[in-house]
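Sequence, please.
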């Protein structure tokens, strides 16, 4: 059994960023996806910024991360979502 090490101390404030095409309700989609794993996430903790040309949208959600497993689950869902081009 391998133990994962992390430099984070939980719980901690953690920004999650997702990038996608500026189409439809991408910001709301990301909020809903992350809220499944962080039910306390308030809508006001999510912000979005257009790319210079307006073709893409960067969404940032500031969550209170409770564990590495929670972060792994969020990033797993973001990575498997066809609307998400990149997640940081």
């Amino acid at each position: 059994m391998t133990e994962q090490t992390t430099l984070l101390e939980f719980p901690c404030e953690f920004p999650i960023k997702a990038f996608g095409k500026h189409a439809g309700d991408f910001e709301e989609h990301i909020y809903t996806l992350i809220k499944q794993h962080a039910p306390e996430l308030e809508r006001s903790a999510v912000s979005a910024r257009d790319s210079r040309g307006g073709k893409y949208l960067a969404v940032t959600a500031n969550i209170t991360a409770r564990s590495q497993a929670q972060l792994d689950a969020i990033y797993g869902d973001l990575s498997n979502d066809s609307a998400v081009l990149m997640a940081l």
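The chain has two helices and four strands.
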